[in-house]
Amino acid sequence: MLIHVLIGTLGIAILSGILNAISSPSAHDSPSPSGTVTPAGNQEQQEIPTGVPSRFIACVTRDASAKRVKSALSSHISSIRILRNQNLKGVQEADVVILGCKPKNLKDGILREEGMRDALNGKLLISILAGTSVESVEENIYGSALSAAKDPIAEGRCRVVRVMPNTASLIRSSMTVIADSAPPLSPTQSTLVTWILSRIGRVVNLPPYMMDAATALCGSGPAFFALMLEAMADGAVAMGLPRAEAQTMAAQTMKGTAEMVLNGQHPALLREQVCTPGGCTAGGLQVLEDGKVRASVATGVRTASVAASRLGRGEQGVNGPR
User: Angle at which helices 243-262 and 221-238 pack, to 10 degrees?
Assistant: First the structure.
């Protein structure tokens, strides 16, 4: 099987994760049909689809992008063919297409090239475009979205699946959301999509109307957490800790806390366990609450969610004055 990736920063991360997983299998988590994620043990315990990907095409528009792909994926370069401005050729040869460019590239006609409809016919198109619905992708390719009651393959179309991974794909620690499809994917398609994305981290399935919020939480989330991590390290440095040690300590503390939550600990209970009455943690938390950190973070996620939706509609300046 051959996968074609219309590459961007996130596309490189996903391709790197898949290639690393194929060359060095390790433990992962698999999705629960209920929309939650539960530990699944070794990768070998997961259902492995027939015809797993073994060859890849990365499509770029600039020489600089080609160099970036070669640099980021240097250890796997023998499995990748890089095409510049040859999207149609790549799609014609592929079995699965991952749309990993920026949303504006869709509006610019990246899938409206002559012959693209025929090249996509009957294939699986996995879209990671922020704020871009399945209907928007279909309208861009075919001029109209297909009724949920009709089978795209039977209608001579491709099957579009909307997903939202994040940049932690590069180290196979992504939180990826797959939008439920209507009509449902075939068992073979569903298994393949889940397999591909579970190679790069955890996977959860949610209804399409939740995807903009998922984009804000999971897609933008690494930047939000990085800001908080940096702020904690700054505070420690101000009190005398060396910068390198402070950053490592903050990162490991955040990672350990996240692992405890993933293992079933509720954040509120975890916070209470650490917060001794009259202690240093209680004093620090009071300052954070006075500074409206909780409200600011929640509002940041909400704002990013709205921005993702507007970007998907092709709007510009979505983060202008409010």
Answer: 130
